[in-house]
Amino acid sequence: MMRSRKHAGTSKPGGSAEGGAASSHEKAGRTSLMGGGSKDILSSKVLAGIIVFVILFGFLFESYESRQGGKSVQTTSVVPGVSLLSPEEDSALESDSDGQIYHVIFSTDCGGYQAWQSYMTFYRAMKIKQPGHVTRIASGCTDEEKVQIEAWFNLHIRHMSQRFHLLLTPNFSAVKDEKGNIVGDYKFFNKPFGLKYFLEKFDLIDYDGAGAFPKTQDAIVILIDPDMSMLRPINKDFTSDANTVISKARKDHIIGRTVEHGKPFAQLYGFQSQFLKLDMEKIGGKDSRLLTTTHEEGRLYYPIGPPYLATVKDMYQIALKWTEFVPRVHEQYPHLLAEMFAASLAAAHLDLKHQLINSLMISDTHTGDSEGWPLIDDIPAKEVCSVGRGDHADLKKYPLPNVVHLCQRYSLGKDWFFGKRKIPHDVYDCANPLFEEPPDNVATMFDYKWPPNAKEKTDLTPQMAKREAFMLCHLTTTLNEAAEYYKRSACGKKANLKKSMKVADLFRGKR
Q1: Hey, which of 68, 150, 232, 245 has its CA 20 to 30 A from 120?
Q2: Residue boundaries of the structural domains of the chain
């Protein structure tokens, strides 16, 4: 397995312990061929060990393939993975044109549900040419899963970019009582604790063990979710009004237009200042700024969510308080948003006011202007589907939000539907078909939606139909493109590229 200097669970391009082991085995083989008594016996033992390891590894990998991406794909001639980027392009993307270094990171567990999402995230980062490094932080894997997940990464993702990485971490999801006894599980603990682990352990971050980063403090960390599909690169610059949407209420309270020390950015989320209703003293202590933070400040600067952007220096301070606060928040508020509330409270405690951006994300078609929907609303209905598919690369003509968040359901008519929960974990399996894609004029075909299992249809305005169409066209096409890219390199002649599967049918129990 690939090893890092700091942590054996880090997998990244470059030097490999596997390479070193292979060299040792080659030397042993040469010794055996040359003769030499006991050396022959030693070489035989080494050779036998290699054979046993290969057989065992093959069994484990086939098991993982069957659960994460289908049966073992090495059954026919395969095309070696080829990146969409040339080596020169990939190297140039180590930083942006100004030399700024970025680290896009996302936290996952080790199961199949987030495996297909992670592959899509890496694929989109490659396709849109996201600058900087992209790292999946996978927490809580068993020993067997560690072997399998790293093998999957090495075989199916490594070739996409030398800038793509995997970091395996301990499990952080245990809920503990005052005595330290485990009394439950909250998987979203993995996000703040995984962030802190990344900043302290990842090879390309030079944490000194005392809270400082001598050479990398100016790098920018971009924390996203694994179910976010990138539409265009995320960077530190939000100076353009053409592709940056900021709420009117915040335009008189601008923190900045560029990410820098003391000026973190994040997507605006809709929970206002609800986090301030908790017991602030129990969370932050009797001297915390939380005790004097007003609800107006809470609404203006702290209803934050992914994508989060901050310098390494600031993000580490946030991570320290986020990991300190989140168990206390969860104790008072044991619900889905506990980790997000804890992030807001960590930032407020540190007086790190965030510049909130509406257009970093689109997700819920009903949210009005609090997400990046004004950019989608400006696209003509007859073109919105093709723009969503990525057929138009001209971001000056049609500026887009940065990411699509797959956390809602999208529907037009009865048959066009997308929801991530029923996407098969083996969606990339060589034998599985691709998804049927909506027609280019789907935005003008329907004035209603009737999702699977809904009792009746819901009427849609032309604006809402256009938003639904954008999401449907982007998500089905993106998943198809990622699956086709996977299959062309992994499945050879057995790749099923027929577009015949419908997401709506999956929700109706058909497959």
Answers
A1: 245
A2: 236-357, 373-507
Residue type, 288: S
> In the chain, count of helices (H) and strands (E)?
15, 19
CA distance 311 to 101: 10
The whole-number average pLDDT for the span 437-465 is 96
| Cα 23 from chain centroid (whole Å) | 35
Mean pLDDT along residues 322-343 = 98
Are the CB atoms for 105 and 223 separated by under 8 Å?
A: yes
Helices (H), 132-174: 143-156
Give the pLDDT confidence score for residue 508 in this predicted structure. Answer: 87
Model confidence at 15: pLDDT above 60: no
pLDDT per position as a tens digit, 95-106:
999 999 999 999
- The H-or-E segment that residue 314 falls in is helix 312-332
Beta strand residue intervals within 234-312, DSSP E: 265-268, 304-311
Rounded to whole angstroms, how far apart are CA atoms 60 and 171?
Answer: 22
Helix (H) or strand (E) holding 107: strand 102-108
Mean pLDDT, the chain, rounded, equals 87
- What values do phi and psi take at 225, rounded to 5? -100, 155
Looking at residue 53, its pLDDT comes to 43
- Tell me the DSSP string of 167-233: EEE----EEE-TTS-EEEE-GGGHHHHHHHHHHHH-TTS---SSS--TTTTTSEEEEE-TTEEESS-
**Span 394-420, pLDDT tens digits:** 888 999 999 999 999 999 999 999 999
Give the whole-number percent of the chain exceeding pLDDT 70: 84
Please choose, from the candidates 150, 192, 221, 161, the residue with its C-alpha nearest in 3D space to the C-alpha of residue 8.
Answer: 150
Segment 54-85, tens digit of pLDDT: 444 444 444 444 444 443 333 234 456 899 99
Tell me the residue type at 441. N
For 148-164, b where at least 16 C-beta lie within 10 A, e where not — what string?
bbbbbbbbbbbbbbbbb
Burial 41-56 (b: 16+ CB within 10 A, else e): eebeebeeeeeeeeee
Listed in sequence order, the residues at least 6 apart from 475 whose beta carbon sits closer than 8 Å to its beta carbon are 229, 404, 406, 410, 418
* Burial letters 393-415, b for 16+ CB under 10 A, else e: eeeeebbbbbbbbbeebbbbbee
Half-sphere exposure of 331 (CA within 13 A, CB side): 12
How many Cα atoms sit within 13 Å of 511 on the Cβ side?
A: 10
